[in-house]
Design brief:
The protein is mostly helical. It has one domain. Helix content is 80%, strand content 0%. Helix 1 packs across helix 3, helix 2 packs antiparallel against helix 8 and helix 4 runs parallel beside helix 11. It starts with a helix and ends with a helix.
Length: 284
């Protein structure tokens, strides 16, 4: 059962990133529209998963506001990174954000220093150098625009993961669904405002062309997070997080190669492999 849950979470993590790529190919921009529909779908997943048993508290909502700001940034910038650059490299950079809550836990929460953190950082640095090389071989050529979008997505995702960690510590593992629902509702309110202001002319076109893809991405995101919460009580975090994060990155990279025919140089492939090892080390 644990193995099936790990495989399912890995595939769901990869599915939401592939959906972003596919929507970007079909829409006329529609960045905020994509994120809005995906968030609304994720809200439905958490409402169903909660079984209607919810207990909302104001102090939990304060954490949710910070989460929403990070989540908005992560979703919008992650979409733009995937749209303007490599699917596999964008997914890799987003997973690197796991270093943020790890460093926060050691620096602020007093968690013990781990040698695996330093190994992960070292591998991460080498990986970044390799994936950004523009050698003679045909491969993905990262641009400044892509780097900015990927970097901002990294920051947003790091904020999300850190706020989730702090909320769980401060409330002793309680109010997971409430925290996520409030955070996602706030995110949806921000996104619908941005979509109406900046994308109203193409709103209906983008919904027709990619609405189901957006909803599928949101459902994948919600189910992935739900499965992670379930697995947290069934297996050690040192097993779950490395498998899901690294497995999702590998699955996304395979999709980029087989479906979208993204070419990478040998050095970039080595960098991708080192990046997967860095993700594993950061999760241990």
């Amino acid at each position: 059962m644990n193995a099936l849950l790990l495989i399912a979470a890995t595939m769901l993590l990869s599915a939401q990133e592939i959906a972003q790529k596919e929507y970007g190919r079909r829409s006329r921009g529609g960045t905020y529209t994509y994120a809005l529909i995906a968030v609304l779908a994720a809200i439905v997943v958490f409402l169903v998963a909660s079984g209607g048993v919810l207990e909302f508290r104001l102090d939990v909502s304060l954490y949710a506001v910070l989460f929403a700001l990070g989540y908005c940034t992560s979703m919008v910038m992650g979409f733009l990174a995937i749209k303007t650059g490599s699917l596999s490299l964008s997914a890799l950079i987003m997973q690197y954000s796991l270093i943020v809550p790890a460093v926060y836990g050691m620096a602020v929460l007093g968690e013990p220093l781990k040698i695996t953190l330093f190994i992960g950082i070292a591998l991460l640095i080498v990986s970044l150098m390799l994936v950004n090389l523009n050698g003679k071989e045909a491969g993905v050529r990262p641009t400044l625009k892509w780097a900015v979008f990927a970097g901002l997505s990294f920051i947003g995702n790091g904020i999300c993961a850190t706020v989730q960690k702090v909320q769980q510590v401060d409330f002793e593992g309680e109010y997971k669904s409430e925290f996520m629902i409030v955070g996602l509702v706030i995110t949806a309110l921000i996104l619908i405002t941005l979509a109406v202001i900046f994308e109203r002319r193409d709103l209906l076109h983008n919904v027709r062309k990619g609405g189901l893809i957006c909803a599928g991405s949101g459902v994948s995101n919600g189910l992935c997070n739900f499965l992670i919460m379930v697995m947290a009580g069934l297996m050690p975090a040192s097993v779950m997080y490395p498998v899901v994060s690294a497995g999702g990155t590998i699955a996304t990279s395979l999709a980029a190669l087989l479906i979208y025919r993204e070419k990478m140089s040998r050095l970039q492939l080595i960098g991708l492999g080192l990046g997967v090892l860095a993700i594993v080390a950061l999760n241990l």
